[in-house]
Amino acid sequence: MNAKRFEFISGSLCLDFVDTLGNRRAEPVERLATPGDLDRWLGATGLGDSFRRKSTSADLTGARALRDAIFRFAMSAIADAPPDVTEIQTINRWAKRMPLRPTIAGARIQMTAKQPVEAALSTIAADAIELILGPQRSRIRVCPECRMVFVDTSRPGKRRWCSSASGCGNRAKVRAHRSRMSEAS
Predict the structure, then answer these.
(1) Global pTM value
(2) Per-residue pLDDT tens over the stretch 52-84
(3) How many domains does one find in the chain?
């Protein structure tokens, strides 16, 4: 798997951020290996298209710490367990910072801030708080195959995998089909 490929299929900004560490079940795939990767991810989300300064190693370290805190916060929500105080402090520390603000750039919206990386991470932290403590809390799931965290937006609320069409759900269905075929022969 290409460590630089970003997926935006979780149904939430903060969970897309969490999923920048892929394959948590086996050998993790770090998609934010360098400060440049963080810049690319933020740009791909639309949070970082106006960056004039590049992310630093300290920005990357802070981003990873926030990502891990959001992951553990989401796992506590899934388990219906109280979150760890350390995760809450990390998320709150980021959420309290100045967020990105919209400005007009010609005919489009441009998100800007004095400290753009910090502001983008603040926006992500705020999204995590609203998702994990909001009405969609009961719809947060973790894929049994790759451990990707996502919001179940299916009507019945029974989605199991990160992606049924081309991802883990498809692979699980193929394995089940092959197993049935080999048992039949």
Answers:
(1) 0.86
(2) 568 999 999 999 999 999 999 999 999 999 999
(3) 1
